[in-house]
Write a structure and sequence with these properties.
Mean pLDDT: 89
Largest sheet: 22 strands, antiparallel, barrel
CATH architecture: Beta Barrel
Oligomer: single chain
Radius of gyration: 24 Å
Number of domains: 1
Helix content: under 10%
Low-confidence stretches: 1-24
């Protein structure tokens, strides 16, 4: 608590705020409305992180970058930097299923519990990251957007031949390389990139090897018609060090050790996306895209309960089309969009375990959504937005050996509305409401422990309220204050002692999940330094049911960030990021019976030295060598278990541009 108060004092004394919002006073985003829109017109808390800002951060991964974003809680689940949860609004252990990740507008969330693969895109290939908090994204994108939407927009072809070569090495015998080449030739532009990383990891059995390659193509067929093609391949092999229980640590085991020396996860992921855009006039168009993705995963885990070996293959086909009309109606600027989304996912499961034998299943989910969204400039200083979506999902579960099958169907209708009042240039008030939902993922209804299917799970719904204030001015001061309240019904969660055999089960919470809070960001250029920071307060509780009055697990009440950027010694740039995360209950402790997991303060920094041909840099993370765990849970015996996070680590690299 003392560290938090010290950090907040620094925030107030230095009038600091969010580094992520320094690029322009009013950046244009596409995520909030599925078309270009200035942030000042959006009735939600929005953050935009540009490529220049991304290059300044010490973090080497996208989740690492997000740690310094106001109100974003990042957990390294496995403790080796390969699997994360990113939580926008206090969803805790279910954050992965309630936060939607897009890459260039393409849905990355899978139809199963594997969640988001954050290794799919190297940070060097990112043009910007857009973060839209709140549930309004459900109308535009459908499932998984109850907490918000994160859209990673990649770099496209340069106007002239351009290339980047980057190599780095550092702690834990880590080495990485990145290369890209882009150009525009007549009406065809391309961007080709590839990277690799290998590391022994902080803990035993946390070694990783990852490589990927990606290609973006854009062809302007005519002045009004363009085609795009995006494709890529990712290969990731990693050890899974697992958790260390409190008794393990008390017995003398080092926090870098493992009790799961043979566990691993190997993944291959490839995708192809094609699209076309036809303009009616300068501002109105039809935009259509289709994609195919194939993801194979093989994993092995073992403990005192036995062993499990599984192979899954998920194939996902998507189609999306929308008509966008940016015209004046009754002399009022209007942006109307009508669209259709379709997604078809099929998962083949083959698993062997010491407790349930051999099983082969095919699971599938087909979903469709019709949506419309409209934004109208009512007066010179006010605008309103409104949207509606009708969504439907059909599930099918087949046993290959048994020849049996189960079905389930869900249907939801959503709507959102918002208003923005401009008080002066750069200063505005906004308010919004959204109806939210989340369907169960495939293996929330399929139980690997017993190889059985339970289709009784209900969809999760919720109401999202938001009100806020933004102030952006030419003097460099940026201030944002946001209040939110989310109330969920039938919230889907994992009960480790649930199910007919007490092995654990996914269930609907029998009380309301209530999340409310405050997000404050302030930024200012002072004495040739850019100072930025934020404070987030979250109040969560369960209203009614067996956990009545309990706080939701893995949600800290207090969180704060502090970022500093300054040029020193003429050419050297220094960037520092500090993050405080407060105490929170362990995953699965819905009864709040155990003591809370400890809070922590992390400090990271990066020195960059620009040269004529590129940049040399040194980044250091966890400078204070804090011994902490971002992720902690109660295991199936009800004992506290930790996934220790990295100690102090450093990386040095050289980037060459031409």
């Amino acid at each position: 608590m003392k560290k938090m108060m010290l950090l907040l004092s620094v925030l107030m004394l230095s009038t600091t705020g969010a580094m992520a919002e320094i690029t322009t006073l009013d950046p244009v985003v596409v995520t909030a409305t599925r078309q270009e829109e200035k942030t000042s017109k959006i009735p939600n808390h929005v953050t935009v992180l540009s490529a220049d800002e991304i290059s300044e951060f010490a973090a080497e991964s996208v989740p690492g970058l997000l740690r310094s974003i106001p109100g974003v809680l990042v957990n390294d689940v496995t403790g080796n930097g390969r699997k994360y949860t990113v939580d926008l609004r206090g969803f805790g252990e279910t954050a992965a299923q309630n936060t939607l990740l897009l890459i260039d507008g393409r849905r990355i969330n899978q139809a199963d519990l594997s969640g988001v693969d954050w290794t799919l895109i190297p940070k060097q290939q990112i043009e910007k990251i857009e973060i839209i908090r709140g549930g309004s994204g459900g109308v535009l994108y459908g499932d998984n957007a109850s907490a918000g939407v994160i859209n990673i927009i990649t770099k496209k072809g340069a106007q002239g031949l351009a290339g980047v070569l980057e190599v780095s090495a550092g702690s834990y015998d880590t080495a990485s390389g990145y290369a890209s080449l882009s150009n525009t030739i007549n009406d065809l532009s391309f961007s080709l990139n590839s990277n690799f990383q290998t590391s022994d990891g902080y803990r035993e059995n946390s070694d990783t090897k990852a490589k990927n390659i990606g290609l973006n193509l854009t062809y302007d067929v005519t002045d009004i018609f363009s085609l795009t093609l995006n494709t890529g391949y990712n290969d990731d092999n990693t050890g899974l060090p697992g958790d260390l229980t409190e008794s393990d640590l008390n017995s003398g085991l080092d926090r870098t050790s493992t009790t799961s020396p043979d566990d691993y996860s190997d993944t291959q992921d490839k995708y192809l996306q094609v699209g076309g855009k036809v303009f009616f006039n300068k501002n109105s168009f039809i935009d259509t895209s289709a994609s195919l993705r194939n993801r194979n995963n093989e994993s092995y885990s073992s403990a005192s309960w036995g062993f499990y070996r599984g192979e899954t293959e998920i194939e996902t086909e998507t189609f999306s089309s929308k008509i966008v009309l940016n015209e004046k109606v009754f002399n009022k600027a209007t942006k109307l969009m009508v669209g259709y989304d379709h997604e078809d996912s099929s998962e083949d499961i083959s698993n062997t375990s010491s407790y349930s034998g051999i099983a082969n299943y095919n699971l599938s989910k087909k979903s469709t959504g019709f949506f419309t969204h409209n934004s109208i400039q009512v007066t010179k200083n006010s605008s309103i937005t409104a949207g509606y979506r009708k969504d439907k999902a059909n599930y099918l579960f087949k046993s290959v050996e048994g020849g049996t099958s189960d079905k389930r169907e869900f249907e939801e209708q959503l709507y959102t509305t918002g208003v923005v009042f401009s008080l002066s240039d750069g200063t505005s008030l906004y308010a919004s409401f959204a109806k939210t939902f989340r369907y169960p993922v495939l293996d929330e209804m399929f139980y690997f422990s017993t190889n059985t299917v339970d289709t009784q799970l209900e969809e999760q719904t919720g109401d999202d309220f938001e009100i806020g204030f933004r102030h952006l001015n030419k003097s460099g001061l940026i201030l944002s204050v946001n209040l939110f309240r989310i109330v969920t019904e039938n919230e889907i969660f994992y009960n480790p002692t649930g199910g007919p055999y007490g092995f654990g089960a996914n269930e609907n919470l029998d009380g309301e999940g209530i999340r409310q809070g405050l997000e404050v960001t302030v930024s200012k250029d002072i004495l040739d330094m850019w100072l930025s920071g934020s404070y987030t307060f979250r109040d969560t509780k369960i209203n009614g049911g067996q956990y009545d009055g309990s706080e939701l697990p893995n949600v800290p009440r207090h969180q704060a960030t502090l970022n500093v950027q300054k040029d020193i010694f003429k050419q050297i740039s220094l960037s520092m990021q500090g993050t405080y995360v407060g105490k929170r209950y362990f995953i699965s402790d819905f009864n709040n019976q155990q003591s809370k997991q400890k809070g922590y303060f992390l400090l990271s920094g990066k020195l960059s030295y620009p040269m004529r041909w590129g940049t040399a840099y040194l980044s250091v993370q966890n400078i204070l060598d804090k011994k902490y765990s971002e992720y902690g849970t109660l295991n199936y015996l009800g004992e506290k278990a930790y996934y220790p996070s990295n100690g102090i680590n450093a990386f040095a690299g050289i980037k060459v541009t031409f």
